[in-house]
Specification:
alpha/beta; Rossmann fold
Length: 470
C-alpha cells in the first residue's frame, strides 16, 4: 500500500512512481494507492490542501515561518491530535481491508499515522518513509518505521549524526516516473529549446516569465506547459502569437518525460519532483518564484551543484537566460552537473531497501526524541551527549539491525527484568502481573513482532573518552 497526501502534485507523483516500480518485481502481487486527504472530510482536505496554496500566494512569509518552526527533529511529539485521528479513520479501515505486507508513505501525515499504528500493534507491515524534497525536514521523523529514504547524502549524514542508525536511513533520491528508453541526443546545431513550466497555479507570474523571454536576443525555441489551467494557456497563447512558431503552448500532457529529454533548459519552480525529473534527464534549471521553505532549499542544493541558476527578479529573466546561453560551454557544464546528481532509479531503490531490509521496525522512545531534539538545538551530534540523556541502541543479535533508540536512563527497567548471561538483554513477552511502564510496553510490543523472545545487545552512542595523546 502506498499512502500519499495531495498537497501539491509532488507527493502523489512520487507515489505513482513507486507504484510503477512495483510492476517490475515478481514478489509484489497487488498494489493500492491511497490519498489520505481524498478519503478524509472535505473540511480537513480544504484546510490542508487548498489552505496551503492560499498561504503560499497571500502570506509566503507565514509559510516560511511554519517550515522553520516544524524543522527541528522531533519538535512535535506526543499523540496525534483528535481532529487528525478522526479524519484518519477511513485510512485505518482501508489498511485493515487491504492487509498490506508493506507500506510506503510519500507524505509526513500518513507517516506519522503509521508510526502510531505500529506502536499500537494495529499493523504488522514493513513501513517506509520517503521524503520528497532535497533538504530533510524534521517534520518527517516519526517514532517508528522500518526504513527512511532521503533525497541526498547530506540528509543521511545529518540524521545519523543526530543518532538515527545508519542501517535505517538511505539516500536514494526522490522517486520519479521511469524515463523513456529512447535516449534523445540534444542537437547542438539547433537553437536551444526552453521548457517553461507555467503550472496550474502559475497565473500572472507565469505570464510575466513568458513575456520576458520575448525580449531575449539569443536564438531559441520554447515549449510552455500550462497543465489543466485552460485560462492561463489561452492568455499565453495570445501573448506569444506574434512570435510565430518559436513558441509551442500546451495544456496537460502525458509527454512530459519526452519533453524533459528534448529540452536544453528548464524554466520554473524547484519543486522536489520537478527538480528530480530534470536532474534525471540531465536538464539544468532556471529557478523562478520558489515557495519559501522547501523549494528555496531545493534551489540552494541545485545551485551548489552547478545544475541551476536562480532569477529573483522577473524583469531579469530574459537577460539571465541570454547570459547563460551566450557563455561558451556553460550550458553543457550545467547539463553534466544535472546528470551527475540525477537519481532515475530512486523508486526501485526504495522498494529494494524496504522489502530486502529489516523486518522489525525501529522504535524511537519519547525520551530519545527529546535527546535528539536537544542535540539539534545545541548543534551537537549524538556522540557528544553524555550522562542520563545519552543515546543507546538495541541491536537484534540475530540480524544485526537496530530495533530501538532510547536514552541510557531508560535501560534500568529493561536490565532488571531481561538481563542476559552475556551482558545483553533477552526481551520477552511480559506476562507478569506487575507490568512495565506504558512506554516500555509499547517498545516491547513493536520490537517482538509476535516472537516470545528477542536477544539484543546494547550499543552506546557516546564517544569514548580521549587521552591527552590522541
Amino acid at each position: 500500500m502506498i499512502l500519499t497526501a495531495g498537497v501539491g502534485s509532488g507527493h502523489n507523483s512520487a507515489a505513482a512512481a513507486v507504484q510503477q516500480a512495483c510492476a517490475s518485481r515478481a514478489d509484489i502481487v497487488e498494489v493500492q494507492v491511497v490519498d489520505v486527504l481524498q478519503v478524509s472530510s472535505a473540511l480537513y482536505r480544504d484546510v490542508l490542501g487548498k489552505g496551503y496554496f492560499v498561504l503560499v500566494k497571500e502570506m509566503p512569509w507565514l509559510v516560511e515561518w511554519a517550515y522553520d518552526a516544524s524543522d527541528p527533529p522531533f519538535g512535535r511529539r506526543g499523540p496525534i491530535d483528535p481532529w487528525t485521528w478522526m479524519n484518519a479513520i477511513p485510512v485505518v479501515r482501508a489498511i485493515k481491508r487491504f492487509r498490506p505486507t508493506a507500506i510506503v508513505c510519500t507524505h509526513f501525515l500518513p507517516a506519522q499515522l503509521m508510526a502510531s499504528l505500529l506502536l499500537r500493534g494495529v499493523i504488522n507491515a514493513r513501513t517506509a518513509v520517503v521524503t520528497t524534497d532535497y533538504d530533510f525536514q524534521g517534520l518527517w521523523l516519526t517514532s517508528a518505521f522500518h526504513a527512511l529514504f532521503v533525497a541526498r547524502e547530506e540528509g543521511r549524514v545529518v540524521l545519523t549524526a543526530l543518532g538515527l542508525p545508519a542501517d535505517r536511513v538511505s539516500a536514494t533520491g526522490i522517486p520519479i516516473a521511469a524515463m523513456p528508453n529512447d535516449v534523445h541526443t540534444r542537437d547542438a546545431g539547433k537553437p536551444p529549446m526552453l521548457l517553461i513550466s507555467a503550472g496550474a497555479k502559475g497565473g500572472d507570474y507565469a505570464v510575466a516569465v513568458v513575456r520576458q523571454t520575448l525580449h531575449m536576443r539569443s536564438p531559441f525555441t520554447a515549449t510552455i506547459v500550462c497543465g489543466y489551467n485552460d485560462a492561463l494557456r489561452r492568455r499565453i497563447e495570445a501573448l506569444v502569437a506574434p512570435a510565430g512558431d518559436r513558441y509551442r503552448v500546451v495544456g496537460f500532457t502525458a509527454e512530459m518525460p519526452q519533453l524533459l529529454r528534448r529540452a536544453d533548459l528548464f524554466v520554473g519552480k524547484p519543486g522536489g519532483l520537478s527538480a528530480s525529473e530534470c536532474m534525471a534527464a540531465g536538464l539544468p534549471m532556471v529557478l523562478v518564484n520558489p515557495i519559501p521553505g522547501q523549494e528555496v532549499r531545493n534551489g540552494d542544493y541545485l545551485l551548489e551543484q552547478g545544475a541551476a541558476v536562480r532569477c529573483n527578479n522577473t524583469a531579469a529573466i530574459g537577460w539571465k537566460i541570454d547570459e547563460l546561453l551566450r557563455e561558451p560551454g556553460r550550458l553543457q557544464r550545467m547539463q553534466a552537473a544535472a546528470q551527475r546528481i540525477g537519481c532515475p532509479d530512486a523508486a526501485a531503490d526504495v522498494l529494494n531497501g524496504l522489502l530486502d531490509g529489516p523486518f522489525r521496525p525501529l522504535v524511537v522512545t519519547r525520551a530519545a526524541q527529546k535527546s535528539i531534539l536537544a542535540a539539534s538545538e545545541r548543534r551537537v551530534v549524538a556522540t557528544d551527549l553524555t550522562g542520563p540523556s545519552a543515546l543507546v541502541r538495541l541491536v537484534d543479535q540475530a540480524t544485526g539491525s537496530t530495533v530501538a533508540l532510547l536514552r541510557s536512563e531508560e535501560l534500568g527497567d529493561l536490565q532488571k527484568r531481561y538481563a542476559g548471561p552475556d551482558g545483553g538483554l533477552e526481551l520477552r513477552r511480559d506476562l507478569a502481573p506487575v507490568s512495565l511502564r506504558w512506554e516500555a510496553r509499547r517498545l516491547l510490543r513493536a520490537m517482538l513482532r509476535g516472537d516470545d523472545v528477542l536477544p539484543v545487545r546494547v550499543e552506546s552512542l557516546s564517544a569514548p573518552p580521549r587521552t591527552l595523546g590522541g
